[in-house]
Amino acid sequence: MKEQWTIGNWRFKEQEQGEWLPAAVPGYVHTDLIQNGRLTNPFYGTNEKDAQWVDKKDWEYVSSFQPSPEQLAGAKQELVFEGLDTYADVYLNGSHVLAADNMFRTWRVDVTDRLTAGDNELRILFRSPIKEDLPKLAQLGYALPAPNDQSEVGGLDDKKISVFARKAPYHYGWDWGPRFVTSGIWRPVYLEGWSYVRITDVYIRQDEVRAELAKLTAVIELEAERECDVLLKLAASDNGMFSGHSASLAAGKQTIEIPFEVENPRLWWCRGLGEPELYTFQIECWHSNNEVRYDSQKVTTGLRTIRLVRQQGDVGTSFYMELNGVQVFAKGANHIPNDSFTTRVGYDRYKHEIVSAVQSNMNMLRVWGGGFYEEKAFYELCDQYGLLVWQDFMFACSMYPGDEAFLRSVQLEAEDNIRRLRNHPSIALWCGNNEIDTAWSHYIPDGGWGWKKSYTQEQQTKLWADYEAIFHRILPEAVASLTVGIDYWPSSPMVDLTGDLTQHSDSSSISGDIHYWGVWHNVEPFENYNRYVGRFMSEYGFQSFPEYKSVRSYAEEADMELESTVMLAHQKNGAGNRLIKQYMEMYMSEPKDFPSFLYMSQILQAEAMKTAIEAHRRRKPYCMGSLYWQMNDCWPVASWAGMDYYGRWKALQYYAARSFADCLLSVDDRKETGEISFHIVSDQLVPVRGQLRLRLYSFSGELLGEQSTPVRVTANTAANVLTLQRSELLGAADTAASVLLAELLDEADGHTLASELHYFEAMKDITLAQAELKITESEHNGVAQWTLETNTLAKGVWLTCEREGRFSDNFFDLLPGTVKTVTFIPHELGDFNAGASTGGTEQDSRVTARSMVDFIVQANE
């Protein structure tokens, strides 16, 4: 049998000097220094700059271990390193056994002849990524584009070297993240012993999956000490399926394929379309006499067909995911690493993110290419909860070297990670990189981000050839050879692999996917979200600050000012704070102080994303994807995230849950034409039948007008069900003090399927009176709940509680005469870091409610 033993008892030190200190593995040099009191919390204040010395040093990790007789009983012994970050020399008992140079790879070393029955010493020397890669830049003779590499923060002036290391790009900084160039044993390290035969990999290949029958193949990779005959057994624990297969093995590695079928399979569906059904298959390898079991391995997967559909139509080419024959409108966000130091992220934090996505009515997350190939828990949770994963390879916003060693490292990295992830039913698409095709825009002489102008024609040709080697040859070949049924997309965004100027995406592209950043970077109005709608919107976003409690985790009260040193240190987008303020002046009333500014920035962000999401969904099926930037944060910061570093939902997350609802009622108010259109968007696989009821109210609650009309919408589509002139709806009503309540009522029983409050003026131009919010606590089925009422319109009602968690709804508008009932969902996030107050008591469960009028400067002030 194959056995594994974790290696512990680690110590570390700076190689040239310093004392030995205890180390946590998995971990990083930075986290070990923090744990030992040698590095102050780098997320606090301006401490980031004080941690930049760490990456200039070489570091040494040592473990002394004594294998038991059971450990040494295996005829073969391997050291397995699931992740070494990044340039590492490994020594066992003084012998050099491994030179690692890629953070994303798994490394295996045969140490059968080097282990002893007594004390063994495992020593790992991590070479400074800075010292390792600066000579590569000098040797190349010119810099490669890497605009997010914050080399100045690291004391390197303009020497951007992140592109030379196969290491998480965001470690070198990004426009939402700090610069901590880590080293360390970041994934488990263990000793693996085996005899006779072992199973090294199992892939459940899905050759054909239909509702009546799934035709599958167990692709089993085995390694044998010597020639032998074996019996392979395949069983599905949940349906009693069993089959046996005899095989003759040669010495070394080989692959055996066992075809099998599952009748009437329970299919895996993404959230909203069905249950994410999973199967567990067990493969066992026995001696041919069926008396000795050599090894076994379990694989959990879901049975489904998924493909990227790109079909030429009357206008451009489609771009959507088809799951089990059903067109899927992708609703979700871009995922970045949950921490600058990924080993601090445990199962609870992954579960919180995935459950938050599900509770926000999402069905897809994009694992963005500037981070890392995520931990097993992330993908397992996506499998279990029914979230599709758009998986980038780890390349973003840079051009990369093309030397033979680099390309070989990329190939092995790709093969490692495709093998690691290919059984997860959540994996929907592999994508080569983030934004490089459009940034370089090779076929448009003056196109892209201006990179080409820094290079001679010869250099441009070389850089593009290196690009094509990685993204048009190595990566697609790896995906095609190691998976069945999963498509590859070379770069996001891109129109198509045409080899001419039509290849590169822009905001007006009618094929491929689009990253639209005119709103934010170009200070275009929110209304432009209605104008620039592509076939699949894979990036767009707007910033806000986290809430006051989160800001205070990294700043003192004296720092509570937009341009303070600390506030600027926690705003990595150079113009970010100015842009938030500029847009706030365009759309919002003036906040009365800095804490109010934090709240108003969240409402501003949420309104921007609501505009975008609903513009995309109204264009279904022309547009079939809306993934905003971004889901989460890697440290406490002002950013595009909908959920801050501590897992606290911003206003955006609550707005997204409403705008991503499976049945949406969306109001499109075109002031330039005087028309207001009412759209029903359904992702459900049954038709929508009901009444559209419109009621106009004054802010004080007076009913000013009412009308209704029957509506019918077919399954899984969007429709404009009614268009009216603004004058028809408003009559003589004051546009600054009136609101329209639109409701979709079910035809069968009259219950509300969807609703929307629509205002006729921008937020800064509406007239808000002081709302007196009444909160009543009660209990229903043993669960505490709160009902809210108001005497006048309460806009942007923000509920807070000292206990960590979220409400069933928040940042909502409340009309007089209506009652809103909410519950509280606590966060159980014991592995969050300093600054997050987790848990709670009866005393800190009191709920406070405030609305927008409490945060803005009034006309008489």
Summarize the structure in words.
The protein starts with a strand and ends in an 11-residue tail after the last strand. The protein has 861 residues and is α+β, with helices and mostly antiparallel strands. A six-stranded antiparallel beta sheet has the order 3-2-4-10-7-8, with no helix packed on it. Strands 27-26-25-24-23-30 form a six-stranded parallel beta sheet. The protein is globular. It is built from 16 helices and 44 strands. Helix 4 packs parallel to helix 5.
Radius of gyration using CA atoms only: 29 Å
Whole-number mean pLDDT: 95
Strands of the widest sheet, in order across it, are: 3-2-4-10-7-8
Give the % helix.
Answer: 10-25%
Number of strands: 44
Determine the strand fraction and express it as a percent band: 25-35%
Residue windows where pLDDT falls under 50 for at least 5 positions: 833-843
Largest sheet: 6 strands, antiparallel
Secondary-structure-based class equals alpha+beta
How far is it from the N-terminal to the C-terminal residue, by CA? 78 Å
Structure annotation, total helices: 16
Shape, principal axes of CA atoms: globular
Write the layout of secondary structure elements.
Layout: E1 3-6, E2 10-14, E3 21-22, H1 29-35, E4 59-65, H2 69-72, E5 76-81, E6 84-85, E7 88-92, E8 95-100, E9 107-110, E10 120-126, H3 129-140, E11 184-185, E12 189-194, E13 197-209, E14 213-224, E15 228-236, E16 241-249, E17 252-263, E18 279-287, E19 293-301, E20 306-309, E21 320-323, E22 326-328, E23 330-335, H4 347-359, E24 364-367, H5 376-385, E25 388-392, H6 404-421, E26 427-431, H7 436-440, H8 457-482, E27 487-489, E28 514-515, H9 518-521, H10 528-531, E29 537-539, H11 548-551, H12 565-569, H13 576-587, H14 594-618, E30 625-628, H15 651-659, E31 663-670, E32 675-682, E33 688-698, E34 703-713, E35 717-725, H16 726-730, E36 738-746, E37 752-759, E38 774-780, E39 783-789, E40 794-801, E41 805-807, E42 812-814, E43 820-826, E44 847-850
Parallel strand pairs: 23-24, 23-30, 24-25, 25-26, 26-27, 28-29
Antiparallel strand pairs: 1-12, 2-3, 2-4, 4-10, 5-9, 5-12, 6-11, 7-8, 7-10, 13-14, 14-17, 15-16, 15-18, 18-19, 20-21, 21-22, 31-32, 32-35, 33-34, 33-36, 36-37, 38-39, 39-43, 40-42, 40-44, 41-43
Helix pairs in contact: 4-5, 6-8, 14-15
